[in-house]
């Protein structure tokens, strides 16, 4: 924030000075009654004194002018809404009090919503940490925290938010790989959603601070390889799945063979020398690890 202050004048929200609208509504009724009473008295006759005519005209003009000025100063503040008050271009504060309010008619009021906004970004094509082209999109929940910054420090704060969301998404997406292709346990876009979403939220809060915007929640809603490499990456993922499945099958088969040999030796069913054990291990591994059914061969003679 210190560096930003040196580059531009940072606005800061402060409370505006306005009046209760219902009190001014009573004043408006009183002024209206005065104008009606003045008209009801009638225009002075032709023979009336000049001073009487001037007094009538002045009273009528003053009543109408007061009626217009009072009526022009009313404005309404809804829940989670604010009005930025300016006087001839100078900031005079922000009114957040709900209900009917009143300010002098020559003071301008610009209403800004302080409610939560939900933005779903377009799909953005970027390169991940390893240079693979990927497509990402995100959903962001944001709101205006400082109305003065949103109104005066950026040209159009809603457009500013949309552009910074795309820029922040590109920055965070390029920090990590799409998937983990090595044995190292690292942060990935696909496998570390909580970490990536936290980084995206922090990145957007830092970028939108200049506009007085706070991001409450941010998260990826779309993540995929770009079409030009999607096929190759799908085959790689399939190969990884096959290797992982084969590895688990082999580990299980080795355990089963070990248990079988130990059970045979423990019960004394058959005495196996090293060569017979090797043949039995080979046969069991083929049966347990093969993709197809094994065709048994009955040996009617001796192994030797």
Automatic annotation (TrEMBL):
Q: Does the keyword Transmembrane helix apply?
A: yes
Pfam short name (any one): Band_7
Membrane-spanning regions, if any?
Answer: 21-39, 54-77
Q: Which UniProt keywords apply?
A: Membrane, Transmembrane, Transmembrane helix
Taxonomic superkingdom? Bacteria
The record gives the membrane topology as: Single-pass membrane protein
Indicate where this protein resides in the cell.
Membrane
Does the keyword section mention Membrane? yes
- Sorted alphabetically, which Gene3D superfamilies does this protein's record hold? Band 7 domain (3.30.479.30)
What this protein is called in its record is SPFH domain-containing protein
Origin species, per record, is: Parerythrobacter lacustris
């Amino acid at each position: 924030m210190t560096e930003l202050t040196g580059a531009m004048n940072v606005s800061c929200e402060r409370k505006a000075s306005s009046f209760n609208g219902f009190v001014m509504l009573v004043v408006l009724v009183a002024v209206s009654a005065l104008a009606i009473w003045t008209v009801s008295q009638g225009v002075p006759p032709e023979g009336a004194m000049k001073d009487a005519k001037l007094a009538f005209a002045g009273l009528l003009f003053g009543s109408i002018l007061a009626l217009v000025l009072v009526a022009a100063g009313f404005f309404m503040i809804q829940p989670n809404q604010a009005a930025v008050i300016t006087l001839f271009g100078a900031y005079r504060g922000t009114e957040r009090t709900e209900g009917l309010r009143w300010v002098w008619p020559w003071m301008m009021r610009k209403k800004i919503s302080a409610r939560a906004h939900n933005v779903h970004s377009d799909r953005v094509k970027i390169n991940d940490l390893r240079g693979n082209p990927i497509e990402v999109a995100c959903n962001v929940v944001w709101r205006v925290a400082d109305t003065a910054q949103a109104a005066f420090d950026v040209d159009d704060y809603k457009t500013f938010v949309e552009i910074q969301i795309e820029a922040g998404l590109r920055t965070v997406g390029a920090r990590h790989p799409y998937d983990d292709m090595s044995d190292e346990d690292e942060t990935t876009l696909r496998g570390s959603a909580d970490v990536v979403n936290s980084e995206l939220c922090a990145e957007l809060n830092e970028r939108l601070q200049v506009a007085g915007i706070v991001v409450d929640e941010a998260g990826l809603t779309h993540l995929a390889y770009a079409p030009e490499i999607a096929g190759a990456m799908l085959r790689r993922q399939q190969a990884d799945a096959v290797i992982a499945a084969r590895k688990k099958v082999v580990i299980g088969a080795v355990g089963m063979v070990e248990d079988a040999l130990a059970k045979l030796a423990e019960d004394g069913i058959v005495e196996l020398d090293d060569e017979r054990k090797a043949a039995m291990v080979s046969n069991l591994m083929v049966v347990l690890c093969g993709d197809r059914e094994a065709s048994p061969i009955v040996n009617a003679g001796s192994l030797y």
